[in-house]
Write a structure and sequence with these properties.
The protein has 641 residues and is an alpha/beta fold. It has 21 helices and 19 strands. The protein folds into 3 domains: 214 residues; 143 residues, 2-Layer Sandwich (Alpha-Beta Plaits), CATH 3.30.70.270; 234 residues, EAL domain (TIM Barrel, Alpha-Beta Barrel), CATH 3.20.20.
């Protein structure tokens, strides 16, 4: 074939095309931010290798066509490299297919074995073909024929090994496999029989492109120019791991959600295109991502604090457009996060975002909350508590040392001594002891509360067992969360812990609040009755804080009613409240309920409580919460001991 005065020995136009494709693919891979999976890493390596292999093929034919007199060592060298390159490439494509069809994130042993086997076969048969004069390493076509034949055999091998795993793959992987294999065979076999055309490049350029488009391409939204969540996560991981300072802004557009569903993508588009383009123009380092219908994220590296401030101001200016958008009133709620030491993974970063967004006001106006050092410190404090709770929840050690069991002795007016105590939980987080108001509701949120109760119960039982040996007391109460009593299996679980300890059932009592009974009254009552039948007593906690349903209180098997301190404090200053307290105590006493008052700190409060007829008094005036082991100092020793 004549080519600009030279005689081209072979037609290699497809090899040029394949080089171009491999180059473009590389560009897309570098410019977009696909999810960094193991398969993606293999594909990336395969693309670079394919670029080299295509270039080597072109070089090889170039020597032959344009410089027929070069020393034979040079084409032999490029030929050898070409063969090595093709081996690596075939290995990578095989490994890629293998990764797609197995859950294993690492190379399968069979993959490594196969690739090595392919290498050995390739080199031995190359040697044999060379020695028998069938392979000319300096001739591009001869090399191509040889490699195509082996490639076809390798493809059949792939069908044999990987095809068997197809049952466990997604439909799209199976489909691409069915397209890939026949196509591959067609290309390789026709290459093996072609005398003038070299198009081996198709055998890898096509599958690589196909795989990239199907599984790894991250199309930008063509209108807004935003990327998706996977890309965001890749970008955020890079920022976190990198050394440079950055800013991340996550902005929600509460109104857009409604508009999106009412009027479709159109509405959102018109505003967003405008805003995104303006924001993007602030600086070339800025990238925008769309997390969902109405949440957008922006990332940028920054040079320093001043640069960040400048960029943030410019971004906020650009976002003003959102406020006057057509006939819809709209606003954003944004959070700006910079680099903080300790935010070293995505989980932490997103946790910091959800922590910070709670600090945004509920006002219907645009607002950007900048996470400061002090907010970050609060977050880290809460984060440590959360992590501790999660660990306790997941470890399920009934003796977990991080759950500290305190107890507050309770004074009996009749005997003028301490007869009971309330156990109170504390949490050991690092070297700090954390109070319940900082972790109880969090524990409820993350589903750890029942694990905490079980541990408390176990520890209270151990303390009771020790006290039963030589002390005179009525019992120790333990607080239970509302949520727990809604589970109909609760009673069995608690009773099994009690029974394992071998203590007298009357020595452990449970406190629940009235508000806990609201939704699932039936289940709560069911659990209470089951436990009551087993000799367990119940205390109604925080009486007087919420609405009270007297009928319910009287129906439930409560032995003691605990008046909240707010009733006490108000009763002492407010006449109307005083008569409510007085009446309540009388009514409840008539129904044989035991009366207990909480929060007694002073002499006057104590006098008032005794005058109104309370049977038990709990408060700092009498005793403070302390480690449960100290209780033995409060309860009298049994005399017959
Ligand atoms: P609570 O059940 O009402 O517990 C009584 C709280 O009042 C305790 O706070 C106690 O230290 C405090 N207190 C006692 N005497 C006085 C006093 O004279 N004046 C004042 N101002 N306060 C007094 P603590 O230990 O911080 O517990 C707070 C809440 O945390 C408890 O309120 C309870 O709802 C919850 N809690 C504590 N331990 C547990 C537990 O093991 N499980 C569950 N689910 N909740 C618990
Ligand atoms: Ca309580
Ligand atoms: Ca209480």
């Amino acid at each position: 074939m004549k080519f600009g005065g030279f005689v081209m020995k072979y037609v290699i136009i497809t090899e040029y095309a394949c080089t171009l494709i491999a180059g473009l693919l590389l560009f897309f891979m570098l410019y977009t931010k696909p999810r960094k999976t193991f398969a993606y890493t293999i594909l990336f390596a395969a693309d670079i290798t394919s670029l080299c292999v295509s270039l080597l093929t072109i070089l090889q034919t170039a020597w032959q066509s344009f410089m027929p007199h070069t020393s034979p060592a040079i084409p032999a060298l490029t030929g050898g490299l070409f063969m090595l390159g093709y081996l690596v490439l075939a290995g990578l494509i095989y490994a890629y297919m293998s990764t797609l069809t197995s859950n294993d994130q690492f190379f399968h042993k069979s993959t490594i074995l196969t690739v090595n086997l392919f290498g050995v076969v390739l080199y031995i048969s190359a040697l044999a073909a060379y020695l028998t004069g069938r392979l000319d390493v300096r001739d591009a076509l001869s090399m191509t024929h040889f490699v195509a034949t082996l490639g076809a055999l390798a493809t059949l091998w792939t069908v044999f090994v990987i095809g068997r795993r197809m049952k466990h793959t997604s439909r799209i992987v199976r489909l691409s496999f069915f397209v890939f294999v026949p196509l591959e065979l067609l290309i390789l076999v026709s290459q093996a029989f072609s005398d003038q055309w070299i198009f081996l490049g198709l055998s890898y350029a096509i599958p690589l492109t196909l795989f990239y488009i199907l599984f790894h391409s991250n199309p930008y939204n063509e209108m807004t120019g935003t990327m998706n969540v996977d890309s965001l996560n890749t970008a955020l991981s890079r920022l976190i791991k990198g050394k440079r300072d950055y800013m991340i802004m996550i902005a929600e557009f509460p109104q857009l959600r409604k508009q999106y569903y009412l009027n479709g993508e159109e509405t959102i588009r018109n505003v967003m295109i405008d805003v995104c383009q303006r924001v993007e123009r602030v600086a070339p380092t800025i990238h925008i991502y769309r997390m969902n219908d109405n949440t957008f994220a922006l990332t940028s590296v920054v040079a320093n604090e001043a640069d960040r401030k400048e960029k943030l101001d410019a971004v906020i200016d650009a976002m003003e457009g959102i406020n006057n958008f057509g006939r819809y009133q709209s606003y954003y709620k944004a959070v700006m996060i910079r680099r903080f030491k300790g935010v070293d993974n995505l989980l932490r970063l997103y946790a910091l975002w959800s922590f910070s967004r709670e600090r945004l006001s509920l006002e219907r106006r645009s607002e950007c909350f900048v996470v400061t050092n002090s907010v970050f410190e609060k977050f880290m404090g809460q984060q440590k508590i959360r992590e501790t709770l999660e660990e306790i929840r997941d470890r399920k050690d009934i003796n977990d040392p991080r759950v500290l069991c305190y107890a507050q002795p309770i004074y009996s007016v009749r005997t003028e001594s301490f007869r009971t105590a309330e156990s109170l939980m504390r949490l050991q987080v690092g070297d700090k002891v954390v109070q319940p108001n900082e972790f109880i509701s969090l524990a409820e949120q993350i589903g750890a509360i029942h694990d905490l109760t079980r541990i408390m119960l176990h520890k209270v039982c151990a303390a009771v067992k020790a006290l039963e040996k030589g002390h005179d007391f009525d019992g120790i109460t333990i607080n239970c969360s509302a949520l727990e009593f809604m589970d109909r299996n609760l009673h069995a679980d608690l009773l099994s812990i009690l029974d394992e300890s071998g203590i007298d059932h009357k020595h452990v009592r449970f406190e629940i609040t009235e508000s806990s009974m609201g939704d699932q009254y039936d289940a709560v009552l069911y659990n209470m009755e089951k436990m009551n039948d087993a000799g367990i007593m119940f205390y109604l906690d925080d009486f007087g804080t919420g609405y009270s349903n007297l009928e319910r209180i009287l129906t439930c098997p409560f032995e003691t009613i605990k008046f909240d301190k707010s009733m006490l404090y108000k009763g002492m200053t407010d006449k109307a409240m005083d008569s409510i307290v007085t009446t309540m105590v009388d009514v409840l006493k008539e129904s044989d309920k035991v009366m207990l008052v909480e929060g007694v700190e002073t002499e006057e409060q104590s006098e008032y409580s005794i005058n109104r007829g309370f049977d038990f008094i709990q408060g700092f005036k009498y005793a403070k919460p302390q480690p449960i082991e100290k209780l033995e100092g409060y309860f009298p020793k049994r005399e017959n001991q």
